[in-house]
Design the sequence.
């Protein structure tokens, strides 16, 4: 097969986060797929998206990045709340995957009940409404916030990983969680550790989201151009 | 009583729309309340918000406008999909009302079933998801799109008004609508005509939203600063 | 503006409750609106509505009071479960507001998650079903019953206020409540104290309900006379 | 077995309706059960309950009738919207069945999708909210209103029966209804005819409700006296 | 009346369970109804259905048993998850009742909130999805698993009964349960004990399911043969 | 990378169907992945699964096939209603994908509203309940049944394809469908034709399900062994 041109769109402004996700995405395809990865970092906004205000800015920046990158085969939006995803789908017929929706849909292939582990408590209402939009809230046994900010996530912060593992174990033991959703893009490099230590599948959507994006592209599924997703030039009244 | 300082935030870039809404808001308080109205128009974005992409840009612009206007007693966001409203509530303790949520909550005080009349069909999924978030979708008997763009709404376009009336009558006769939600900021000056001609209450949220904003302020209800609405400076990890 | 003729309908038989609510309603309009308040007290039924049986009697008495008071501009039903409200809307085109629905709709303008604080535990299922009808149950983080009966509510019972504050604090700390709904008409004079002491907005719907009723009237929104709300004389089969 | 003492409570004031239902109930037990039927007719209210106002009055009258009849083994409330049923359950430990809830629960034992056939269109919102409370709305393919008032229901009005059959056939053919709920107490004597002519099971809850009431009694299931159904004398604050 | 020919279908392979349920069913009709009971035991599968795999096998065996028993007046499926019930309804016009659906529908006639008490924790997701399908999950205050396997249920295991009672009391005291659903066929002979000791109605559906089956048959309600329940010979493509 | 050992499990007994799906699955991986495909056909049951009874038998046969094939890297269940899928997940830690759930989850990555096109009308309730379990029913604008049986599906029956296209066009034009779910395993070879002719993405889940299965495996996501998915030998009471 020819190359798979994936654009990884990081809605925050921290290029280290982009790099971290890019490494993981590359590893996910190594050996199978000829990946041409384009990794984009937001130029305005926050280096860590933790509030609704930051997410609003991130959404605008995300669609700008996609607009400027018109020829990818697929896009992966690397922020758990999938900022701007409906809007992004108006801009291209390439399939677009958000890591949040990828994580929720993936976990339900391997578990009937899941728990969400997140960073700050203030994000919980956004997570719950995200789950409602995706139709998965009644499969969630609870959301655990570790209180550790986005900036201190990832394998470089072993204490954070321990906090995630502790929360995951409580979710399994006290509420019957059968899988874990790690609700932060920065948790992608601890998926394996959490899975092994807690003993149930864990995902944050970066790896599986990239793979799902490839699957959609390979299956010939392109973003619809009908209804709410019709190309924008059809709007005569916009000026 | 002292003055009520209301900021009307128009998320689109058309100052004529802002003026039209400002006239209507002023009339709603005339004689009762000493209104000090500050009317703001977006400086970037679309002159008519009809797509999810335009709404994303509008949301970012909306919170920017609110950030720059720190001392109002209350805010009214003058676009039916309430762009950026959760984010806006992080920025101030003044109550914030979106015309969409105002319209849905108001109509249910005077009708048990309502229909939505909107502009372009492409907006229907956004409207339905908005109703789901507000918990009112099961009270909606249907959404009618006239196919008339945002730019051609308002009393200056009598043909549009006739199309709204025709849709409203069908909603009443065929589906049992008891009230109408006019899902576009530009429809605020036809509420009375539609109400009279169709014979059921109609609202688009500009008038009632402004009045509700005053009511919240008068009742001493301030936007919460707890949980997801905690002030942003509490986010140590943001940089 | 001319006078606003509001009828405050107290579904219980205790005139002291009516007086207490009337004082608060008057204060809510002082200085802005020329209020002509008509305060009505049920003549049969219970002095404190705490059971479904008492609510059934209260509903019948409520519509009787509204029937006898045909010329108000708006009505406020002063019992948290909004007894008889759908029926009341068949009787008049003046807008009718229940304090329960007003409280739930108001709190969601200023908070994304709320807790309910009520009197006796036996009322919890009624509260939950009320929230389901209004479409707001998934925004409620829990219901706390203090165990204090209706008769011992209000600023005259400081111990009750402390119990409400304690419950409110637990709701904020343990479940992330961002606002409080005080589910009893008798709690209207402690709203401010609870708001200040707990630090999140609190409402029981009397103040905001009266203000919303005025807003609806001012906006020209009248109760629908279509569908289920058609005038009763259309029922040929009634005798 | 000893006698089964059933109280049939007709919430409307028409003794002819009571008699009609009583005949049908007696037939349902003939040969099996030693039925002692006490048939009660409302003394105030409407002779045909078609509006929310009439239902409010009927609810109050229903609980009065049950209060006065303290020694039945079970109660059947003979009006489709089950007026006052939660309140009634506070009054006695005898099981109480409403014909509406009986009809909905029964039809789902014999059909996966049902249609509702009712009298006047104005009753549709009440029916829909009733189905939501019972958790069955997503199994309903639609509500058909014949436009024939309550007073003209029953086998004595063959034209009405034809209208019901026509509506039922459309529901089966156009929407896949597998069963019919006849949403009026006055339709109890046309169940068999409708079932045979349309070819799918039809019920209005009078027959099956009486039988279910006996089943509950026979199984030893008594109305709970816990939580919201605790006996009323526990309310110290009532006077 | 003539005899009522009921087929009790036990989806597990333990004839002792069948006998136990048969004794209870006979007692439920003694004196009233001339019962002709046919009690069937699965010949393949598990002696105790505790996993989804066992339930799949049980469903296939259940419809085989019903197919072989073509002339009953009604069927009772004696396993709480109602294995194969939709399929069973394709096979006969006799009414079919599952003990699970019977228990959930019955408890809601006598309680507004119920708790579920079950055997092993692994069955909880199945129970929750069962409640969702029946539309009753929002009336359930929680599921308590005693950890005691199916094989050790029933009056012969007094320790199990004590565990059920302890769980039931916690559900009443801590969560406001007003009734109990005992989610295992093997609990049918402890219903009375649990009801008396906990003080709220308890049911596992065997007794009430058999009585409801009789009620449906007596009311003339037959399983629909329309839509998804059309007789199988209509499927031309089956071979 | 090493080989990906996928087991394609066809729950019906028609080896031609298995072959057809196998061809399509092989093509989906050609060039990228070293696929070792094991294609299994049911040995008992129906050659076309169109009824609930046939699905029950298919579920039992499906788990038998999986039990006998213990060493695959992943499983794809090739029948749209995903028979036995929860049970299958108890049997292995390899990820298991059903074509139905794959189709619903995939379409929502590329469309906000979808329509379902199916074979016989009798299957509609099963489809609707499947969508409810997956949490996607509120994104579905309707189900169209062509009336063409399973046996006459696929590219070999051009008239069937035309019927699917006609239904798809109606769904897009009349109800705003943005994507199509083709609810039958036999439709896998017409996905491309339907997509091109109707102009919106269409999927039946065979291609995308196989690719998703590979993605899950590649991402290291294994079926949970916790909670309801714990290995069966833990059930001490089974014999």
Sequence:
């Amino acid at each position: 097969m020819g190359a798979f041109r994936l654009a990884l769109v990081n809605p925050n402004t921290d290029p280290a986060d982009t790099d971290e996700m890019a490494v993981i995405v590359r590893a996910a395809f190594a050996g199978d797929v000829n990946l041409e990865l384009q990794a984009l970092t937001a130029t305005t906004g926050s280096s860590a998206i933790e509030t609704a205000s930051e997410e609003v800015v991130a959404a605008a920046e995300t669609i700008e990045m996609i607009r400027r990158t018109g020829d990818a085969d697929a896009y992966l939006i690397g922020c758990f709340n999938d900022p701007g995803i409906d809007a992004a789908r108006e801009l291209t017929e390439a399939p677009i995957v958000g890591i949040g929706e990828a994580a929720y849909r993936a976990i339900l292939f391997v578990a009937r009940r899941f728990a969400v582990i997140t960073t700050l408590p203030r994000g919980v209402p956004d997570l719950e409404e995200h789950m409602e939009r995706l139709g998965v809230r009644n499969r969630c046994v609870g959301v655990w916030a570790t209180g550790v900010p986005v900036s201190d996530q990832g394998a470089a912060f072993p204490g954070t990983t321990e906090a995630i593992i502790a929360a995951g174990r409580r979710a399994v033991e006290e509420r019957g969680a059968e899988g874990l959703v790690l609700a932060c893009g920065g948790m992608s490099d601890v998926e394996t550790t959490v899975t092994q230590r807690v003993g149930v599948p864990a995902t944050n959507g970066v790896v599986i989201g990239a793979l799902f994006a490839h699957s959609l592209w390979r299956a010939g599924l392109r973003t619809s151009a009908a209804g709410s997703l019709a190309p924008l030039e059809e709007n005569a009244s916009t000026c």
DSSP finds eight helices and eight strands in chain F. The longest strand of chain F covers residues 4-10. Confidence is low (pLDDT under 50) at residues 234-239 of chain F. Helices of chain F lie at 15-29, 52-68, 85-88, 99-110, 124-134, 158-175, 191-198, 206-218.
